[in-house]
Design goal:
six-stranded mixed beta sheet; alpha+beta; Rossmann fold; 2 domains
Length: 267
């Protein structure tokens, strides 16, 4: 995370763009908003309104990264969980934007090489995960900053999560919740068989994590950066990309930092 606290967004954001997921509820909400407010194209906007769930929010942010036209995003939940979204309301949109708190998010960068020597790079806002492709468990060598810390991790997979993503897949894999501004990332195994007692690690966000797949032909592994999958990887390197900053906007009463904190008390 590149911003430790949500900051008040007091300047008036005049030009709004609107994007919506294909889900019927999001499409209906889009029609209502367009009937009430004026919107422009994403590249011409000061802020983007995104309608959908967390998956659509990640899709929206990745779309802006692909076009190198980053804009603040105010999401409204018309999906299932909506952890990265605000409550859906039609009224007082301009007032909500004027009062919103903004959080700047630095994504991870995944550099992956396949068994055929192909190379891929992709950002990840929530996490980068390695997952076995077959019934065979994955065998992975884990290094941190060039030092081998686990010569052989036998597992269903392993992931590196940001603070913003620590309450998503990372949490379901029994990984730690990381407060915003902690300057940390989570390294979490997925159903580790060996070492049996290893439950993961918390690392500084400056750390560079490397995974080398042991016997990737017999035990194939895929690498997933949020929603982008690269199959049959042999080596994956992950680091925080400080050259990019994405901004998420939240109603003050439902700000991201408070949500992440309160997740630690969810039962």
């Amino acid at each position: 995370m590149s911003d430790q606290r949500g900051r008040d967004t007091r300047q008036e954001l005049r030009r709004m763009a609107l994007v919506a997921s294909p889900a019927p509820a999001a499409q209906a909400a889009e029609a209502e908003l367009r009937a009430r407010y004026e919107f422009t194209m994403v590249d011409d906007a000061d802020v983007v309104i995104a309608l959908g769930g967390d998956g659509f929010m990640l899709q929206t942010l990745h779309g802006m990264l692909d076009r190198h036209r980053v804009r603040p995003v105010f999401g409204m939940n018309l999906g299932t969980v909506g952890f990265l979204m605000n409550e859906w309301r039609l009224d007082a949109l301009s007032d909500r934007l004027a009062r919103a708190r903004s959080f700047s998010v630095a994504p991870l960068r995944m550099d992956a090489e396949t068994i055929d020597g192909e190379r891929f790079a992709s950002p990840a806002i929530n996490e980068v995960s390695l997952l076995r492709e077959t019934r065979q468990t994955a065998w992975v060598e884990v290094s941190v900053d060039g030092r081998v810390v686990l010569p052989e991790l036998v597992c269903d997979g392993v992931l590196v999560a940001t603070a913003a993503g620590s309450t998503a897949y990372n949490l379901s894999a029994q990984g730690p919740i990381l407060p915003l501004g902690s300057g940390l990332v989570a390294l979490t195994p997925i159903s580790a068989f060996r070492p049996r007692r290893w439950r993961g690690a918390i690392l500084p966000e400056t750390a560079r994590v490397s995974f080398r797949v042991i016997d990737p032909v017999k035990r194939p592994v895929s690498a997933v950066a949020d929603q982008r999958e690269i199959r049959d990887v042999s080596v994956v390197q992950i680091s925080m990309d400080r050259s990019i900053a994405l901004t998420l906007m939240f109603d003050p009463e439902h700000a991201l930092d408070d949500r992440i904190t309160m997740e630690q008390f969810a039962v």
